[in-house]
Amino acid sequence: MMAFAFELLATEGMARAGVLHTPHGPIPTPVFAPVGTQATVKAVEPRELRELGVSLVLANTYHLHLRPGDELIRDLGGLHRFMGWDGPILTDSGGFQVFSLASMRQVDADGVTFRYHLDGSLHRFTPELAIQIQHNLGADIIMAFDQCPVPDDRAAVRLAVDRTHRWLVRCVEEHQRSGDPARQALFGIVQGGIFMDMREESARFVTSFDLPGYAIGGLAVGESKADMVRTLEQTTPLLPAHKPRYLMGVGSPEDLVHGVARGVDIFDCVLPTRVARNGAALTRTGRINMRNLQYAADPRPLEEGCTCYTCTHFSRAYIRHLVKASEILGHQLLSLHNLHVLLTLMREMRAAILDGTFTDYASAFLARYQPVGLAKGAQRLSLPVS
User: What whole-number distance in Å separates Cα of residue 152 and Cα of residue 245?
Assistant: First the structure.
């Protein structure tokens, strides 16, 4: 078996089930990767991630380069040893973080100069440096340095697509020059905002490089859900069927279902742990705010029938007490539950694809799930026609 290989095991419509083999173990797909920005999934221990069945964790190039330093991590044995995680790791290139700085950065043809958001110190990222940092970190899957534009500004998207393509060439060259493609898989990123002519152009260019996988970037960054789903549905067929497809930064339950239904294999998002820190629990019918008074004396678990540690040991009343008291345990227990919900959803969707019942499963899930901000009775996004 090659260090990196993708096996496509079954399809139903556009939905796919497979296995991505990596040097640190197999990743059953479709998969959700919890985000460990600072080499830790917030409030969750590596031991707990293993118990939850996590098969892929994401870490952040921008943050780890600036603190504690990628060379330090390299000298201490690499990111796997540094964070005590022996499973597969994906690192992003830092592009999204750099471009989100807005007034604190300046872009030119060669790279991006920016001020560190914590202390104002001046730094510069180039495609070559982004790859070198990820080589030092030692993740299994690394990302090309790209520009993530405002998705509905055609002029800005045009500039970002051109720059992303030029930078991809440099990333590939640097990875071949100083890296080990057998140890680290470089994924290219398709940009284009919500404009399909540019998405098609970007997909043609990025897939002209025979890379181990391809990502779809520049979605879930301000466009409407309808635009995101439409763009995704038209973009995934442009990517090779025999390579994994990664939708960056997407992780709400309904988005995972819509993404899998449109042929995505890999997802990541900070959402389950971020909303946990704000006192919210994810359930199979929608999100609930544990700060609400209605849960003050509620003896039920966060979700009836849930088998996670939180739901099998604690009541809504106790979780609300922890949240209101700003106790760290509240963050921990909500994070464990929220991750369990998403990981269970992914496992169930994979099983449904394998046994040919995915369309029924996805339709039933979406019918009972209430997305945040969607009024009851409002029109919902539909699944793609098989």
Answer: 23
Beta-carbon count within 10 A of 61 CB: 28
pLDDT-based confidence at 1, cuts 50/70/90?
very low
Task: Kindly name the residue from 70, 255, 265, 268 that is annotated as catalytic.
Answer: 268
Instruction: Look up 140 and say whether it is catalytic.
Output: no
CATH class of 5-269: alpha beta
Say if residue 229 is exposed, middle or buried (CB neighbours under 10 Å; 0-12, 13-18, 19+). Answer: buried
pLDDT one-digit tens code per residue, 207-262: 999 999 999 999 999 999 999 999 999 999 999 999 999 999 999 999 999 999 99
Active site residue 360: no
Residues 6+ apart with CB under 8 A from 241: 8
Tell me which of 92, 140, 146, 255 is the catalytic residue: 92
What's phi and psi for 83, nearest 5 deg? -100, 5
Residue 367, classified by CB atoms within 10 Å of its CB into exposed (0-12), middle (13-18) or buried (19+), is exposed
First-last CA distance in the chain:
33
- Phi/psi of residue 196, each to 5°? -70, -30
The structural domains of the chain, with segments of one domain joined by +, span 5-269, 276-368
pLDDT digits (tens, 9 = 90+) for 186-218: 999 999 999 999 999 999 999 999 999 999 999
